[in-house]
Automatic annotation (TrEMBL):
InterPro entries documented for this protein: ArgoL1, ArgoL2, Argonaute_Mid_dom, Argonaute_N, PAZ_dom, PAZ_dom_sf, Piwi, Piwi_ago-like
Protein's organism: Phytophthora palmivora
Protein name: Argonaute3 (AGO3)
Classification via Gene3D superfamilies: 3.40.50.2300, paz domain, Ribonuclease H-like superfamily/Ribonuclease H
Organism superkingdom: Eukaryota
Extent of Basic and acidic residues compositional bias: 343-370, 378-388
PANTHER family listed in its UniProt record: EUKARYOTIC TRANSLATION INITIATION FACTOR 2C
Pfam families assigned to the protein according to its UniProt record, in alphabetical order: ArgoL1, ArgoL2, ArgoMid, ArgoN, PAZ, Piwi
UniProt record similarity statement: Belongs to the argonaute family.
Residues annotated as domain PAZ: 565-678
Record's compositionally biased regions (Pro residues): 441-452
Organism phylogeny: Eukaryota, Sar, Stramenopiles, Oomycota, Peronosporomycetes
């Protein structure tokens, strides 16, 4: 639901207010001497203004034939605006800001009529300045806020909010917590005294009565005009209007009778306006949900575009499509491309190709050497046929639609490139088979003449590849199901959404290169190193929102292989500047090259041929790989010289196999005779590529907004014939929605607390809540830095640590420089350092600092694997450039990490966390990380903080395993966490979750001496289609873990999905709702308008963007046994972002899920090179796998080693 409160901008502008007043100008109130006069003024002005406005609005609406419930919505909104303006005209000189506060508190409504937030009270500043907001009050303090506001503005009393009272009554250094009973009692006493003093002032009562009367008049006028104008209403609606009228009379009686002070305040605070307006808008059948409360509002534009279905057909017809190879081609598909055949068995490196064929007469018309030229094809093995590539299937279906266009009766059909086809009308037939489909177009090569008499039989002519397409009716889909879904969440809306989405994407899929849900034209590219290029495009998806259909469009960018010589990819894979530098490949180089080239499609340059995929490389170079052609042994280099008159320039390079990975079906081509086919996405991205991609794709919010609008224009939705055929029309302007901006929490340190500004703060003059003590540590230097620089850095670090509350007793750590042990690897140096620290008699080693030359991942992984799995001592890496500069801010950041690694506690939040602070609550985050492209067969890691995330192997990762990580909080502040990690087979769910959870629950008990009474579970890495499968699987795992702890133990669980991989972007509609970079402010939450009204989900901006356009995180509450309100879930999630321990900024998504991500990434280093085996992490062994995964050292299991 789109939430938008009545815009108070013009009301607060006093000049505008004066211009708005009627001839009965009530701004001069000097002659008014009592409350009665003021009340009458409010009533008269509001009644006149309301009646005049409502009458005009209803007349206009009826003239447009928009009567009925639509008129009710419109006139109510206009009435509120008019009345607020009228009330403001009489209170300006008397500074009665409480009226404005009450109106804003009670009259927050949407354009569609849904009341949203009745408790965001704005209190105006003194001295007649009505344009500034001084205090934002929250739901819990609305009653006190009304009293404070009235007293402050009308009687010059000084308001003492609850927070101020706490600060005043708490002795210096006290912390108000569960144990400080005496302090809490004194605070409560002070609050009660403050309330009594405020309520005692009659001016408060007078002001509240004025507001209450104004509210009565608003609703009374609305009811009267509705009746007088004969607005068309149903019987049910008329009954509700009568109920409203009765309620108005009761309200008026309350005000006139003059209830006791506190009760009058309660009447207003409970928002009779809200209650009445909810009744009004329920006349439209709108579901009035309990949306989150608190915070100010902000207007945002989002990259969603409205989709209307006014001309949609009543039914859409779905057909099932099967694409198969033609039978004759399938039998002959063993033949490879032009090249040299081979029969080696290893598809990546292979044995030396040897061909021993029988003599055959060469057909003079056949210019190629195929398998049949050198040996008889082996007997075909019976094996399941591999599925055809999706891109090929799409091309075949398109070719069928072209070749057999007449068979479809002029109906525009669309398809998803796989097995689904949709038509806006029923096709002339229920099922049909189309044969001889040629996706490559007409063949330029005619068949050879038949063999002459007496000639040897010739193998059958292999013409163009052809396919068979079978289409049959599957189901009929009603487009009305979408409308039904708006009022009934049980309606299955997915079939119609899928059909409309395919129709909306069909034209783009025909014209552009498709990657997932993204389209790329290859016209706008940026060259990257290593034969790659960055390409821009756009993302597109249909979404169902609150009673409407939207199209999400966003800028997209990805990396493609540049259509150049294959050599451009080979050289960087081997770290060579030119092909002449390559003289023989080691086994490791061969594996790396085979991995880098695998599945890349190439086109031979020595003759015309279609593109072929690379399956591996040869063990020997071209000049040493021998083949037997008609009894003559020759090298492949000699063969190409003889057959094609091509003299290879680099015969010392290996060959690529473009035939098949099956033994005996290989087909070899020299690397220099291959060009990379265009339009191939590159998944092999290194750190340098990533950095360049970020630089090129980062756009300020305004620029990205303009790019998106331009992409919608270029997509041509207005002239899309397929959209028209399915009755869809896409708006060309961004959707506007309303958001709320939550206040940040105060971050508490040992000596001071600070309210972050813009999602950030600093460590200056602050001391950690719990500072650790470091007595025994060492420094390993592997970088080109002097010992003098290192000593200077250590001095600065020790100084900053002292200021921050981290005690470093040993200011002269033991140092080992690589120059002393030339040829030693960093692991050996760390072992030496550890041994010497143990011999110092200063206690166990606590930290090994390693100074690296740069940020290279290789050395970093070696360092972490050694410290985390072998030595059992935390490590801290420092890049050499920071050693030389030794800036205070950098040293402060290092102190943040070291303190947490040594079991300290940097900071806590001053405010209570919803649910967590009131009862023992464990917060879990979980993540599963999968091997990146180019990581070989290493398994992925599963991490479980208590929050969860599972990432899956990317395309081309095969059956490589995943890493699961689970982390869990250990205290009521959610400031300390522990993690458990495990390797597992690639899967969406976390397979060892019960055992990991049991271990974490025991750690929580050991830390707090209490069992968790509530569980909040943040789960990352789940696609929308998997939501409920994962919920069922992992809720069962949670229940199993509870039972493992003790019988009867079953704490309630709130299960929240965390999604960072989405394409929603929002842009502030005005500068006051933006940060200094033009991004959405941290704390902004969107839970209406663009989200599904039947789901408990929201978008949250948890951080302030550093570069480009900020990206919110999308949270979906799938299961909530704790019965948390939307506000509590949102506030908890947002505030957790301020507990991230290694920086003084809020982070973009919930800290438990973030920690799980870090733990999974760290555990990836625990896999030994080439591992394909089972987890050996504690008791988390998997009997079905055999990953070579080293266990986290016992001494670090209850330490935040991953920070």
């Amino acid at each position: 639901m789109t939430s938008a409160h009545t815009d108070m901008t013009t009301v607060r502008d006093m000049t505008t207010v004066r211009d708005m007043t009627t001839t009965r100008d009530m701004t001069n109130v000097e002659d008014m001497t009592n409350v009665e006069d003021m009340t009458n003024a409010v009533v008269m002005t509001s009644k006149d203004q309301v009646t005049m406005t409502i009458t005009a609005e209803v007349t206009a609406l009826q003239a447009l034939d928009q009567g009925g419930t639509k008129a009710v919505e419109e006139i109510t909104a206009r009435a509120v605006e008019a009345t607020v303006a009228a009330v403001m005209t009489i209170v300006e000189e008397d500074r009665m800001a409480v009226v404005v506060a009450a109106m804003e508190a009670g009259v927050m409504m949407t354009e569609e009529g849904t009341v949203m937030d009745t408790t965001a009270v704005r209190v105006m500043t003194v001295e007649g300045d009505m344009t500034k907001a001084a205090v934002d009050m929250t739901t819990e303090d609305v009653e006190e806020a009304m009293v404070v506001a009235a007293a402050d503005m009308m009687t010059a009393h000084v308001a003492i909010p609850v927070e101020t009272a706490v600060a005043t009554m708490t002795a210096p250094g006290d912390t108000v917590d569960e144990t400080n009973v005496d302090t809490e009692a004194r605070v409560q006493e002070a609050i009660v005294d403050t309330e009594d003093a405020m309520i005692a002032d009659m001016a408060v009562v007078e002001a509240v009565m004025i507001v209450a009367m104004a509210v009565v008049e608003i609703v009374e006028a609305i009811v009267e005009v509705i009746v007088a104008m004969d607005v068309v209403m149903t019987e049910e609606e008329a009954t509700v209007v009568e109920e409203i009228a009765d309620t108005v009379e009761e309200m008026e009686a309350v005000v006139v009778a003059g209830l006791e002070e506190a009760e009058v305040v309660a009447v207003v605070v409970e928002s009779p306006v809200q209650v009445l307006l909810i009744h009004v808008f329920r006349m439209n059948g709108l579901a009035v949900l309990e949306f989150a409360r608190g915070g100010r509002t902000a207007q945002l534009q989002v990259n969603y575009f409205g989709v209307s279905l006014d001309q949609a057909p009543p039914e859409i017809f779905k057909y099932h499509v099967d694409v198969e190879r033609s039978p004759d081609l399938a039998a002959d598909s063993k033949y490879g491309p032009s090249g040299v055949p081979g029969d080696q068995k290893d598809e990546t490196m292979g044995d030396e190709p040897k061909q021993e064929g029988k003599d055959e007469k060469e057909d003079k018309e056949d210019k190629d050497v195929e398998m049949s030229d050198v040996s008889a094809p082996p007997k075909r093995e019976q094996r399941p046929e591999r599925p055809l590539p999706r891109s090929l299937v799409r091309n075949v279906i398109n070719a069928a639609l072209r070749q057999y266009e007449a068979e479809f009766g002029g109906i525009r059909v669309v398809h998803d490139g796989m097995s689904a086809m949709y038509a806006p009308a029923m096709l002339p037939w229920a099922a049909k088979t189309f044969v001889d489909i040629n996706p490559d177009g007409p063949s330029p090569t005619p068949p050879p003449p038949p063999p002459a008499a007496g000639d040897a039989p010739r193998r059958p002519f292999r013409g163009p590849r052809t396919f068979v397409v079978k289409i049959k009716m599957a189901e009929t889909i009603s487009t009305a199901s979408l409308t039904d879904y708006y009022s009934n969440p049980d309606v299955n809306v997915m079939p119609v959404l899928q059909a409309l989405d395919v129709a909306a994407r069909h034209l783009g899929a025909q014209r552009l290169i498709t990657v997932g849900r993204n389209f790329f034209s290859m016209k706008k590219t940026f060259p990257l190193k290593g034969g790659k290029e960055l390409c821009w495009g756009y993302h597109q998806a249909i979404r169902v929102a609150d009673r409407k259909l939207l199209m999400n469009v966003d800028q997209a960018a990805t990396v493609f292989y540049a259509p150049k010589e294959l050599m451009e990819l080979v050289l960087p894979s081997l770290n060579a500047r030119s092909a002449n530098d390559i003289r023989g490949l080691s086994d490791r180089d061969g594996r790396n090259l085979a991995r880098a080239l695998r599945k890349i499609e190439v086109v031979p340059t020595h003759r015309k041929d279609r593109k072929r995929a690379i399956f591996g490389i040869s063990a020997q170079p071209a000049n040493q790989t021998m083949v037997n052609i008609k009894g003559e042994n020759m090298s492949v280099a000699d063969y190409f010289n003889k057959r094609y008159n091509v003299n290879l320039r680099y015969p010392q390079l290996p060959l690529v196999n473009v035939g098949s990975k099956r033994p005996g079906k290989e087909n070899w081509l020299p690397i220099e005779l291959c060009e990379v086919a265009p339009g191939q996405r590159c998944a092999n991205i290194n750190d340098l590529d990533t950095a360049e991609i970020i630089r090129q794709t980062s756009q300020p919010p305004r620029a990205r907004q303009e790019t998106i609008i331009d992409q919608v224009r270029q997509a041509g939705f207005e002239n899309d014939p397929y959209l028209a055929a399915f009755g869809m029309k896409v708006e060309q302007r961004l959707e506007t929605t309303e958001a709320r901006v939550m206040d940040p929490p105060d971050v508490q340190y040992a000596n001071v607390s600070e309210r972050p500004s813009g999602g950030q703060w600093n460590l200056r003059d602050k001391r950690f809540v719990e500072g650790a003590t470091m007595r025994n540590w060492g420094v390993v230097i592997t970088a080109n830095v002097s010992e003098r620089d290192v000593q200077g850095f250590v001095r600065n670090l020790v100084d900053m640590a002292g200021k921050s509350g981290l005690t470093i007793e040993d200011s002269n750590p033991h140092m080992i420089h690589m120059d002393q042990y030339r040829g030693s690897q960093v692991e050996e140096l760390m072992k030496m350092c550890h041994s010497e620290l143990k011999a110092r008699n200063k206690g166990p080693p606590q930290l090994i600092m390693v100074i690296k030359q740069d940020k290279s991942v290789g050395s970093y992984s070696d360092i972490k694997r050694m410290s985390d799995t072998v030595l059992g001592v935390p490590s801290q890496c420092i890049v050499s450039q920071h050693v030389r500069s030794a800036k205070p801010q950098y040293c402060a950041n290092v102190c943040l990490k070291i303190n947490m690694k040594l079991s300290g506690k940097n900071s806590i939040l001053r405010e209570d966390l919803p649910l967590v602070s009131s009862a023992p609550t464990i917060i879990i985050g979980a993540d599963v990380e999968h091997p990146r492209s180019g990581m070989g067969s290493r398994p992925s890691i599963a991490s479980v903080p208590i929050g969860a995330d599972v990432e899956h192997p990317r395309s081309g990762m095969g059956s490589r395993p995943s890493i699961a990580s689970v982390v869990a909080s250990l205290d009521r502040y959610s400031a300390k966490y522990v993690a458990r990690v495990a390797a597992q087979k690639a899967s969406s769910d976390i397979q060892l979750l019960p055992h990991m959870l049991r271990d974490l629950f025991l750690a929580y008990y050991q830390s707090t001496n209490r069992k968790p009474e509530h569980v909040i579970y943040y789960r990352d890495g789940v696609s929308e289609g998997q939501y409920y499968d994962i919920l069922q699987t992992e809720m069962r795992a949670l229940r199993k873990a509870f039972k493992m702890i003790s019988d009867g133990y079953n704490p309630p669980v709130t299960f929240i999905i965390v999604n960072k991989r989405h394409h929603m972007r929002a842009f502030p509609a005005n500068s006051r709702d933006a940060d200094r970079k033009g991004n959405v402010n941290p704390g902004t939450v969107i839970d209406t308008g663009i989200v599904d009204s039947h789901r408990f989900d929201f978008f949250l901006y948890g951080h302030s963007g550093i570069q480009g356009t900020s990206v919110p995180c999308h949270y979906t509450v799938l299961h909530d046994e704790n019965k948390m309100s939307a506000e509590d879930v949102q506030r908890l999630t947002y505030h957790l972002g301020y507990t991230f321990a290694r920086c003084t900024r809020s982070v973009s998504f919930a800290t438990p899920a973030y920690y799980a991500h870090l733990a999974a990434g760290r555990a990836r280093f625990f896999l030994n090179e080439g591992s394909d085996g089972a987890s050996t992490v504690g008791s988390f062994n998997s009997s079905s796998s055999n990953f070579d995964f080293t266990e986290l050292h016992e001494d670090l299991k209850n330490c935040m080693f991953f920070i």
